[in-house]
Design brief:
Blueprint: H1 2-7, H2 9-19, H3 27-33, H4 37-48, H5 54-70, H6 76-81, H7 86-100, H8 104-117, H9 125-150, H10 152-175, H11 183-200
């Protein structure tokens, strides 16, 4: 029944497709992008109920004026050449590159072999792999609660440090797995920890 399980993600997409037309557009989108103040007022009333929402509309108008005066549309080459955006660009490239090269793809790719070597029954391995996915989901939910308390920088830096430590330990356990039978299980625990730290950090 794995094909059914994989296709079940389509249910959430179908649910969104059916329900999204009944939700109002963002008031700021309607006012800033569309320039439709009446639709903006309707959306605000639908979201926050009846009442005088002029203060909120004034705030959105101030945001619109600030956006129009302070920003201009840049092409990709202009963004690369713009000196004032240089450091933001460096940070963005570093973050995206780090995310791609952090090792999560290798963990997903080799986890089946590690579980197989750890003498898990063949029929249990898919469920253990499913456990990895659940760990990532739960750690992402946990991250959303921690990010306000600690900030993005701490979670990102801490996540990468912990992931690096786990990879070092995983390299050791995989190297010694033929000498100590319990190393297989330690490797499995490390894989789960790596995925948790990935979800909380990067």
């Amino acid at each position: 029944l794995w094909p059914w399980l994989l296709s079940s993600v389509g249910l959430s997409a179908l649910l969104q497709l059916v329900t999204l037309p009944f939700f109002p557009d963002s008031p700021s989108y309607l006012l800033i992008q569309k320039g439709n103040e009446e639709s903006c007022r309707k959306a605000i009333r639908k979201l926050w109920g009846e009442g005088d929402h002029q203060a909120e509309i004034d705030d959105i108008m101030k945001e619109k004026v600030a956006a129009m005066t302070s920003t201009k549309t840049l092409r990709v080459l202009e963004v690369i050449k713009e000196p004032s955006l240089r450091w933001q660009l460096y940070i963005l490239v570093t973050l995206v590159t780090g995310l791609q090269l952090c090792g999560i793809n290798a963990i997903y790719f080799y986890s089946f072999e590690v579980f197989h070597t750890a003498k898990f029954e063949e029929y249990l391995i898919p469920y253990v792999s499913l456990g990895i996915g659940l760990c990532e989901c739960l750690s992402c939910i946990l991250c959303s609660t921690l990010i306000d308390r600690f900030g993005r920088k701490v979670l990102l830096l801490g996540g990468y440090i912990l992931m690096c430590s786990v990879l070092v330990l995983l390299t050791v356990t995989l190297s010694l797995q033929h000498q100590f039978f319990w190393m297989h299980y330690f490797s499995v625990v490390l894989i789960f920890l790596f995925v948790i730290f990935y979800g909380i950090g990067p």
